[in-house]
Task: inverse folding
């Protein structure tokens, strides 16, 4: 058998002497990863392994290398012309691979000619043992998709240059999958990156470029100096987006969701989504009516419409976006996932996301990497996103060289998820069209992200009031002399006899006439859109806070559901402590022991599911719960299998989805916001591992959650669970920064609640989805209270109660004896209760405020009005004085208290103001606690 193996080696032409080191390197790669070498080499090396496997004695790696060497020496000695040609044939194969890997570094991508293009040694003939003398020599081209078996070296090089080094620079060889790499090779090489387009296609390109340029010129003339963040220099973006939408329709998608920052946004809104120019002009002139609290500038606005494609009607949605650039990316992903779930689409075929980036932001903003990392995870994947980078080659005033990034391309971050990258010169419209088609086909075939790097320029400054030559004099000296892409392409079409100057002018005049009339300029816009493509928000409009909804639930049904979700499949091996949790929950259902937090929360989800609402719960540790209270996902100790009881309840139509998220707060919370603003019928919850982890998502909280309704009219029922409480564990993870949420509270924009009993969280969660109002809910959820012996409820409390904004004094304190009133919120209540009991102070009443915003002044007044003999009122909190609820709430407290007894003032009891949220030493924590509790009780 070993002789057959050696004979097979000898019959292989690619083992000639000049290439033995190359073959050895390939073999080393093959041993590390089969996928890292081409299919031809993989088949060859597989045959070596298979051949040796049939012998009694294995052939070692060293033996194979030695045989490579010996065989090469034999062939070298023979010195035939045939062997020399075979050696060069291997060099040609190496050259082809080099073009596939590094051809993009030689491509002509920059319309300005400023991009530094270093010499690439791998693309030189000499690097592969070839020379100009070989240009007329015929070589085999089986590994190329040029349509013929042999070609001269010159023909091969010309074809490779046209394919990989012209207006398109393709990066795909970093992808591990050989199938995907071969797909790109076939698509690019079969047409040498330059497909022949017919007149109709070219005139369609002409029309899109004409519209893009004409709108910018029109706005510039009509509103000189007004900020619009124009698309001049990057007009090719419009044909890209248009083509992606048309291709999505051909793939029978029903929706496309677009996210982008301000650059070119107005152009996309008008020329892609069909926003009426009359509305846009009103926004420029400041006469547009928005009917919102604050509204927002025109280049942050969203929009939606329906357009017709060859595959049918497609709904388009442009996401609203603040000036935080890339933060819209995960918001779009969340919206897309919600739409796909509505359609029961698990693969991403029905809804496609398009995200348009700036070059500086794509390489500079960390949320880009976070969003890319989402793309293939269970909780967040959407079947692939087409990313388009409007690469102006300058960020605000920061040039590419030295300052903008550390990588060659702004797109290099996308390689973290093996996304293919198609760099394209924006001044070659037909190349732009080709990469658009390629990107859409890849996305739908492989369900993965892909990046189009539209290398262009910014004809004006960052905004139309800037003078860019002050910071980029050389760049803008070139730009001033450069004709627009539309001017260049229209001249090309005139030369090709597809049109003439008179027709060009007619197209421009007809377009501008529509602008003057204030009409929509999109020819494919659907006047009577299919409403089945929309989410219905009608039931959630026009509601106030005063409608709580009925959160009671039949007690026997609660007991039945509890028994259902406390059962596991036969033979499922629970961990010992988890089994005790489940056994205790059965006892709670049977009223043998009191209800705790985890059981009440789980019953809330079960009842929500039973009443026809889906539940989506995500966060870094939500399956178990950071503090081991939830155990919504159970794990078999023998097999590792996961079982989620709430997914197996009887008589439920909607789903319970729970995912442990990857280690991100910013992108994950933005995703859940996008999901919640799209699907009002699903209970969407994000839980922070610790409450202060929300710091990492502060942009989402500031720019979307607390202000989205008043800026853009976007309703949102998202719930945030933020563990909060001072347990002596140090500055980190004590505070969820309650004060920040209260500072952001205005115009009844959000709910901020601090529930202290299991019944309260049961009814609070149910209220959030049962009542039709959709506003974000921020919950300061507990840690130690999850197992506190006093923080318990009864099954009757769950079945027949409601959420109490204020909980009055619960013990038998005679109202006429009360002279001191302590108001508080959260876990500090239990410290106060314990101290009062120990001191026997019957003149003190303690009232809990469970909803801090919107502040329940009437409820608080009703809870304290019975105390006619009050002399002192104290607000007690465990947070330092400059944190917590004190500064944002004291005027509300005062209003309620003086409404009862005018002369009363509200005093503060708590920790002194502090730069850090909490003490770092347990002894100091205990000392502070004792001091301010004593101050609250005794004055």
Result:
């Amino acid at each position: 058998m070993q002789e057959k193996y050696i004979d097979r080696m000898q019959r292989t032409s690619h083992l000639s002497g000049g290439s033995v080191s190359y073959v050895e390197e390939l073999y080393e790669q093959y041993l590390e990863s089969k996928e890292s070498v081409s299919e031809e080499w993989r088949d060859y090396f597989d045959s070596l392994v298979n051949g040796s496997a049939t012998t009694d004695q294995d052939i070692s790696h060293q033996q194979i290398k030695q045989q490579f060497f010996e065989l090469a020496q034999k062939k070298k000695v023979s010195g035939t012309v045939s062997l020399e040609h075979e050696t060069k044939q291997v060099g040609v194969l190496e050259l082809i691979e080099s073009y596939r890997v590094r051809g993009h570094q030689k491509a002509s991508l920059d319309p300005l000619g400023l991009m530094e293009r270093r010499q690439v040694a791998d693309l030189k003939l000499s690097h592969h043992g070839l020379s100009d003398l070989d240009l007329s020599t015929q070589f085999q081209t089986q590994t190329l998709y040029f349509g013929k078996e042999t070609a001269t070296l010159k023909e091969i090089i010309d074809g490779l240059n046209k394919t990989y080094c012209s207006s398109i620079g393709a990066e795909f060889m970093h992808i591990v999958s050989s199938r995907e790499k071969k797909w790109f090779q076939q698509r690019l090489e079969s047409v040498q990156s330059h497909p022949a387009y017919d007149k109709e296609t070219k005139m369609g390109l002409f029309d899109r470029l004409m519209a893009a340029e004409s709108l910018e010129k029109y706005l510039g003339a009509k509103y000189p100096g007004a900020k619009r963040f124009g698309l001049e220099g990057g007009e090719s973006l419009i044909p890209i987006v248009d083509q992606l939408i048309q291709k999505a329709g051909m793939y029978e998608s029903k929706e496309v969701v677009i996210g982008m920052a301000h650059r070119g946004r107005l152009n996309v809104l008008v020329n892609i989504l069909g926003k009426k120019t009359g509305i846009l002009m009103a926004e420029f002139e400041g006469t547009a009516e928005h009917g919102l609290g604050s509204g927002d500038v025109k280049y942050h606005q969203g929009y939606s419409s329906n357009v017709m494609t060859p595959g049918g009607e497609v709904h388009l949605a442009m996401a609203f976006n603040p000036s935080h650039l890339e933060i819209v990316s995960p918001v779009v992903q969340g919206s897309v996932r919600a739409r796909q779930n509505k359609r029961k689409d698990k693969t991403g075929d029905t809804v496609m996301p398009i995200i348009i980036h700036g070059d500086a932001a794509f390489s500079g903003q960390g949320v880009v990497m976070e969003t890319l990392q989402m793309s293939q995870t269970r909780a967040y994947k959407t079947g692939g996103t087409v990313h388009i980078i409007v690469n102006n080659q300058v960020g605000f005033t920061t040039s590419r060289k030295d300052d903008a990034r550390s990588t060659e391309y702004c797109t290099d971050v996308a390689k973290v998820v093996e996304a293919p990258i198609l760099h394209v010169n924006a001044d070659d419209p037909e190349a732009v069209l080709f990469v658009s088609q390629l990107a859409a086909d890849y996305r739908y075939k492989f369900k993965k992200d892909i990046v189009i790097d539209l290398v262009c320029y910014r004809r004006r400054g960052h905004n139309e009031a800037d003078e860019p030559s002050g910071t980029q004099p050389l760049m803008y000296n070139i730009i001033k002399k450069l004709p627009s892409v539309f001017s260049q392409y229209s001249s090309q079409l005139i030369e090709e006899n597809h049109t003439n100057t008179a027709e060009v002018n007619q197209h421009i005049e007809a377009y501008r006439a529509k602008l003057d009339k204030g009409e929509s300029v999109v020819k494919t816009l659907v006047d009577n859109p299919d409403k089945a493509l929309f989410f219905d928000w009608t039931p959630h409009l026009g509601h106030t806070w005063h409608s709580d909804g009925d959160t009671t639930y039949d007690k026997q049904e609660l007991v039945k559901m509890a028994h259902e979700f406390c059962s596991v499949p036969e033979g499922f091996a629970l961990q010992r402590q988890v089994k005790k949790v489940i056994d205790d929950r059965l006892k709670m259902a049977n009223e043998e022991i009191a209800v705790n937090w985890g059981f009440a929360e789980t019953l809330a989800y079960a009842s929500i599911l039973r009443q026809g609402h889906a539940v989506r719960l995500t966060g870094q540790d939500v399956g178990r719960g950071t503090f081991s209270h939830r155990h919504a996902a159970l794990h078999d100790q023998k097999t590792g299998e996961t079982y989620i009881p709430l997914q197996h309840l009887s008589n439920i139509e909607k789903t319970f989805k729970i995912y442990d998220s990857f280690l991100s707060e910013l992108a994950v919370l933005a995703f859940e916001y996008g999901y919640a603003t799209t699907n009002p019928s699903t209970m969407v919850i994000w839980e922070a591992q610790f409450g202060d982890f929300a710091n990492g998502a502060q942009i989402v909280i500031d720019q979307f959650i607390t202000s989205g309704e008043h800026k853009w009219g976007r309703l949102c029922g998202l719930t945030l669970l933020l563990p909060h409480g001072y347990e002596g564990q140090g500055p980190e993870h004590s505070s969820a920064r309650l004060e920040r949420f209260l500072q952001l509270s205005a115009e009844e924009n959000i709910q901020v609640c601090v529930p202290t009993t299991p019944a309260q969280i049961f009814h609070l969660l149910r209220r959030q989805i049962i009542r039709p109002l959709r506003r974000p809910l921020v919950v300061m959820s507990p840690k130690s209270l999850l197992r506190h012996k006093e923080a318990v409820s009864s099954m009757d409390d769950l079945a027949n109660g409601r959420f109490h904004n204020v909980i009055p004094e619960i013990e038998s304190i005679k109202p006429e004896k009360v002279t001191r009133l302590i108001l508080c919120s959260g876990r500090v209540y239990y410290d106060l209760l314990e101290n009062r009991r120990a001191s026997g102070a019957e003149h003190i009443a303690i009232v809990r405020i469970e909803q801090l915003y919107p502040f329940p002044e009437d409820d608080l007044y009703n809870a304290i009005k019975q105390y006619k003999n009050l002399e002192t009122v104290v607000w007690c909190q465990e947070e330092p004085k400059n944190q917590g609820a004190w500064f944002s709430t004291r005027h509300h407290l005062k209003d309620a208290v003086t409404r009862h007894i005018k002369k009363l003032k509200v005093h503060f009891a708590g920790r002194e103001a502090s730069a850090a949220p909490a003490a770092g030493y347990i002894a100091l924590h205990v000392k502070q606690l004792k001091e301010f509790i004593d101050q609250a009780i005794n004055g």
Summary: Residues 358 and 390 are 5 Å apart (CA to CA). The chain has four domains: 2-184, 199-285+298-454+501-533, 555-725+732-800, 806-938. The domain at 806-938 is CATH 3.40.50.11610 (Rossmann fold). The chain has 32 helices and 26 strands.
